[in-house]
């Protein structure tokens, strides 16, 4: 079945540092790929998405490129802020029917310090 | 403002008791979902519904039940058969794909319900 593997956290960075959170996937066909972010005590919010190979999703300074050859979708940001502290989830969609059944990774906690 | 409302924010269950978690959306979305979140395990799909009066089991449906009598509402009942119910429960919704093919993959989440066992 489909699966998503993320790097384990927590990841602790100083403000303005470069961020990379690794994500690799296993899926049949050509899934869409997502990054969701969860702030403390809240639900998840879509951060960015990519629907086909070589697509780059971007939002709020975060970027991720759909790499079919390496089955990866690594999240990057050039300069993190304290407000970026949250849990980040990589996910894929199997596109069955009219519902979107997402398969999530285990999440990576990011802590940014001054 | 449109969105998804989950209630209550915290819920406690006694042994042998059934409890119901509420999820209401005013986004006019057709599909709704319930996920369970455990520490270190990410999110796992419990049930989902593509249209009113229809729903399907997800990966971990045992010990749970749902109904979808109205488009706006998708309540989840945690039954006494669920032996390890302590978790954070998240409800989500998405658009019907025939309207906007890529938008149906974009899930909107509620703020969650933390269920604990007394």
How would you describe what is shown here?
The complex is a heterodimer of chains A (114) and B (118). With 114 residues, chain A is mostly beta strands. Chain A has strands spanning 3-6, 11-14, 19-21, 23-26, 32-38, 44-50, 56-59, 62-65, 75-77, 86-93, 102-104, 108-113. In chain A, strand 10 and strand 11 (102-104) form a beta hairpin. Chain A is globular and about 45 Å long. Chain B has 118 residues and is mostly beta strands. Chain B has no helices and 11 strands. In chain B, strands 2, 4, 5, 6, 9, 10 and 11 form a 7-stranded mixed β-sheet that branches. In chain B, strands 1-3-8-7 form a 4-stranded antiparallel β-sheet, with no helix packed on it. The mean pLDDT of chain B is 90. Chain A binds chain B through residues 4, 32, 34, 36, 41-46, 49, 51, 89, 93, 95, 97-102, 104-107, and chain B through 4, 6, 30-31, 33, 35, 40-45, 48-51, 56, 58, 90, 92, 94, 96-98, 102, 104-112.
Write the layout of secondary structure elements.
The complex is a heterodimer of chains A (114) and B (118).
Chain A: E1 3-6, E2 11-14, E3 19-21, E4 23-26, E5 32-38, E6 44-50, E7 56-59, E8 62-65, E9 75-77, E10 86-93, E11 102-104, E12 108-113
Parallel strand pairs in A: 2-12
Antiparallel strand pairs in A: 1-4, 3-9, 5-6, 5-10, 7-8, 8-9, 10-11, 10-12
Chain B: E1 4-7, E2 10-13, E3 19-25, E4 31-38, E5 42-49, E6 56-57, E7 64-66, E8 76-78, E9 87-94, E10 108-109, E11 113-117
Parallel strand pairs in B: 2-11
Antiparallel strand pairs in B: 1-3, 3-8, 4-5, 4-9, 5-6, 7-8, 9-10, 9-11
